[in-house]
Amino acid sequence: MRHLIPALALLAAPVLAEEITADTIAALPPVDVVFLGELHDNPWHHETQAAAVAALKPAAVVFEMLTADKAAAITPDLVADPQALEQTLDWANSGWPDFSMYYPIFQAAGGAKIYGAQVPRNAVHAAIMGGDVVAAFGDGADQFGLTTSLAPDEQATREDAQFAAHCDALPRDMLPGMVLGQRLRDATMAREITRALDDTGGPVVVITGNGHARTDWGAPRLLSGAITQRSIAQFESAPDQPQPFDLWIITPEATREDPCLAFQKD
């Protein structure tokens, strides 16, 4: 069922992006789609997501980490068997962090229908190398923004963000393709969220990295204005500037090696 937020609820809800605690998510006014962002390797972020899914009881959960084919293979019996689910999803070869961090989210989903928003690697690679993303996406490319060029300022900002995210180590001529690959991922996520909402009536919870949950250029921007939504990011320290989310949560910091080491040559 699509949610229309009453005026009083809007007045009670946060007007500007601000910090909340994880235990308040379920008490927020209902919306059609809730984005639960994450840093992929932070276990506290997945704990927050699992608790929120259990409390919200969505009709559908969309995972960035699954292709549509992988999601379609999930059954209640598989969810009850973590080893079988991990094997069916070929998680060990997926490139995502340890399955033990994500499995509680599947458990918490209960009878919710599972959808996958991951773009196959070959399609992302083709986009980065200058392939035809409109043809790769198929029907609906215009609906989800892929037939429209970005404004020059946004294109430049997004290329700079990709450069910084890859430790200032990428050749500059690769950056337009990296942005295009990100746009393909966002469009695919928006399409699957829309499909999940149409199939089930919602609400829909989206498990994704913070980047795809951005309200300025992520998947939320590509959804129909008739869909009510909320984007919740998770950080490891308080941001010092305005953030492109509705709300955020601060958690402990995960233990990790410096990701930029991977870009350093011997």
Short description:
Helix content is about 40%, strand content about 10%.
Task: Describe this protein's structure.
With 266 residues, the protein is α/β, with parallel strands linked by helices. The protein has one domain (35-239). 39% of the residues lie in helices and 11% in strands. It has helices at residues 7-12, 43-56, 68-72, 76-79, 82-88, 99-108, 121-128, 133-137, 152-165, 175-200, 219-222, and strands spanning 18-19, 33-36, 60-63, 113-116, 204-207, 229-235, 247-250. A 7-stranded parallel beta sheet has the order 1-7-6-2-5-3-4, with helices on both faces. Helix 2 packs parallel to helix 6 (99-108), helix 7 (121-128) crosses helix 10 (175-200) and helix 9 (152-165) crosses helix 10. The chain is globular. The termini are far apart. The relative contact order is 0.21.
Poorly predicted ranges: 4-15
Q: Tell me, briefly, the overall form.
A: globular
Number of strands: 7
Count of helical stretches: 11
Biggest sheet strand order reads 1-7-6-2-5-3-4
Percent helix range: 25-40%
Helix vs. strand class: alpha/beta
Estimate the strand proportion. 5-15%
Biggest pleated sheet: 7 strands, parallel
Q: What's the structural domain tally? A: 1
Rounded mean pLDDT score: 91
Span from first to last CA?
A: 56 Å
Strand/helix succession: HEEHEHHHHEHHHHEHEE
Q: Compute the CA-based radius of gyration.
A: 18 Å
